[in-house]
Amino acid sequence: MTSGFDKENFTYDAIKDKYTCPLSYELPFKWKGKQDGKEYKRSTCEAFEICGQKESCTSAKGGRSVTRLSDEEVIEQIAGNTRKQSKIYKQRGHIVEHPFGTIKRHWGYTYFLTRGLASVGTETNLICSPIISRE
């Protein structure tokens, strides 16, 4: 359930480096941080006491904060491109992924036993490599 005060409803001005809430109040930049190896900036609302929507906006005592990753513009661009190309991605799923599913099912491999790209890649290579018998 969204309240209308979710991050996607806030607008970001890259020139001013500020977010604006749906009620047109600005959230100025407050501080930078780093978590899980990712740098981010946090903007915090200073008008939360006068806007009249604090209860539906946030439960934080210091007002609503919005976090922006340092490379969020790239992430937003990729997400936009993905949405635009969704038809192509669906087509790829029908054309490319079906043969791999058929091969796995034929050989009795219904799911991967490992996680992570490197591990799954290794498991795929083992599944697809020819079996050499020692006779």
From TrEMBL:
Pfam families: DDE_Tnp_1_6. The lineage of its organism: Bacteria, Bacillati, Bacillota, Bacilli, Bacillales. Residues 20-128 form the Transposase DDE domain. This is Transposase. InterPro entries: Tnp_DDE_dom (IPR025668).
